[in-house]
Amino acid sequence: MIKLMTMGTVSLLITALYANSAAAYFHASGWRGSVSGGNGSWSASGLRGTASGGDGSWSASGYRGGSASGGDGSWSGTGFRGSTASGGDGSWSANGYRGGSASGGGGSWQATTSYGTHVYGGVDHYYGGAYYGGYHPPTVVNSYGAGCYNCGGWYAGAAVAGAVVGAATGVAVANNENANAYSAGYAAGARADAYAIGAIYTTLPAGAAIQTVGGATYYVYNGTWFSPGYGANGVFYRVVPTP
Amino acid sequence: MKQSAISKTNALIIGVFLLQIGLLSLRIPGISNAANAQTPQPSREAPLSDALPNGSPQLNLEQNAIDRFKAMSNRLASAQTLAFTAISSYESPSRLGVPLVYTTVSEVTLQRPDKLRVITSGQGAASEFYYDGKTMTAYAPDKNLVAVAEAPATIDAALASAYSAAAIYFPFTDMITADPYGDIASSLKVAFYIGQSQAADGTTTDMIAIANDKVFAQIWIGADDLPRMMRVVYADDPLWLRHQVEFTNWQLNSAIAPDTFSTDRTNSATRIPFTRPDPP
Question: B14 and A150 in contact by Cβ < 8 A?
């Protein structure tokens, strides 16, 4: 939780204080400012702004008049020139004072600039196309991100389809000593009953038992059946109906 | 901590990061630029070659670039056996939109026309691929899972079969087919010579760029006509993510032990099928 709060604070300060992120990647919270906290609250002040929070909410203001606040799963902000941004519950949107806009959620995002340029991106990058001349990435099953929620990749692509991510990531990460606090925290609230049929996972929940039905291999965890397969240069597990 | 609280905290962290983008005057093109640094941005709907001002396909195929590519192709195709190390990296978008880069290291051994072994380590799970002219075997040693299937009679056909059946694609595929140049010659729209480099595999290389309507590739070719690096962007990829493979430890026409292209380590492994990880 401390790490999470620190991450949030550091990131927040970058925003609220209008720091030049390109010039100070790792020093953003360490130059000419102070941070304190305790008993469920925290506050920070920098040369050009302040931020504080506690009991599930937070707020910040910059010296030029920008402000941001959030709590209970949502957040919003206003820049001193009138730009706005807000989000919550897995989605976000923003509008720039010169007419640009952006929004996202569910692992993808899109944006339109004030000049009308439209760009987009996301994590649902499955392979596709034909042999030669097609779009091939990625070339291996993305098993790297099992303990990294923000890494995206195939695993996230499956997870964002529903509330499944907690379940599979949860159990897998809980057994990974190297899992970072972010993922471990995400895992803590995992529900074991939220696997979607057809979803793909690169790791099995700990305790999944191997079963053979009709000559085919499956893994079963808490009533959910996984069918293992080899594809895209690695092993993956698809949630299937009970065979 | 409750799930809802965790999700909200995650959303908060991501949101605050994204808020930086929003509050900093919404420099939205920066998002695209971050994902495509060093990459020009013509219309995504147009073929790559349309970005060139010269409308004549013939004039877009510089002969010295074609010659270097042909020489490389001939050198590789004429070798009865090949062995090399391929260090492959590819970008994959994070949830923030900007890409992360992942790297794999593969030890590749090939005997024409019908034997191939690819042992891959690096980031992620290790994998082993064996093709002996009759079957192809994919083995995950850490999980002790193995997929085995009948395979066509040539390396080219086996690679196509592996891609079709299970989306198995090796970034160095373009260099190990029977005729690398012939495979793409008819579709080439652009080929030009860039210059020389000393930066790849510790040797002097000629840099060329080639493209058809789907793929743009930059290739570093050594004085010995062997590829040292290849970097690719796909036109169909809306993010124009970069894919790169470095080639090193080249060995041509070396003797290879007969048991190289199979393994008995899979005897006790659990069988699983080859299958494509298509989206649900």
Answer: yes
Query: Residue B11: which of A87, A97, A126 has the nearest Cβ?
Result: A87
The ipTM of this complex is: 0.78
Same domain, B23 and B102: no
Nearest chain B Cα to A72, which residue?
Answer: B8
Residue type at position A27:
H
Identify residue B89 by its one-letter amino acid code: S
Tell me the per-residue pLDDT of B153-208, one tens digit each, with 9 for 90 and over. 999 999 989 988 998 888 899 899 999 999 888 888 999 999 999 999 999 999 99
DSSP-H helix ranges across chain B: 3-23, 29-35, 63-78, 155-166, 173-176, 180-185
Chain A residue with Cα closest to B177: A132
Give the model's confidence band at B49: pLDDT under 50 very low, under 70 low, under 90 confident, else very high: low
Alpha helices per DSSP H over A56-215: 153-159, 165-174, 181-188
CA angle B254-B255-B259, nearest 5°?
Answer: 130
Cβ(A102)–Cβ(A89) below 8 Å: no
pLDDT, average across residues A136-156: 58
CATH code where residue B103 lies: 2.50.20.10
Lowest mean pLDDT among A152-166, A229-243, B43-57, B233-247: A152-166
Does B253 lie in the same domain as B224? yes
* Same domain, yes or no: B20 and B122: no
Domain ranges, residue B25: 3-35
**What average pLDDT does the segment A143-167 reach?**
48
pLDDT bracket for residue B29 (50, 70, 90): very low
List of residues 6+ apart from B170 with CB closer than 8 A: A139, A233, B86, B88, B106, B108, B118, B159, B176
pLDDT of residue A202: 80
Query: Is A11 close to B26, i.e. CB distance below 8 A?
Result: no
Judging contacts by C-beta atoms under 8 Å, the chain B residues touching residue A138 are: 90, 92, 102
Residue A143: per-residue pLDDT:
57
Nearest-angstrom CA–CA distance, B81 and B220: 21
Residues of chain A contacting B155 with CB distance shorter than 8 Å:
none
**B residues 210-249 closer than 8 Å to A (CB):** 212-215, 234, 236-239, 241, 243
Q: Indicate whether B11 and B61 sit together in one domain.
A: no
A162 touches chain B (CB under 8 A): no
**Distance, CA of A56 to CA of A40 (rounded, Å):** 9
For residues B172 and B222, membership in a common domain is answered with yes
Asked, for residue B25, whether it belongs to a domain, the answer is yes
Give the number of domains in chain B: 2
Cβ within 8 Å, pair B90-A139: yes
**Does a structural domain hold residue B186?**
yes
A68: chain B residues, CB-CB within 8 Å: 16, 19, 23
Does B46 have pLDDT greater than 70?
no
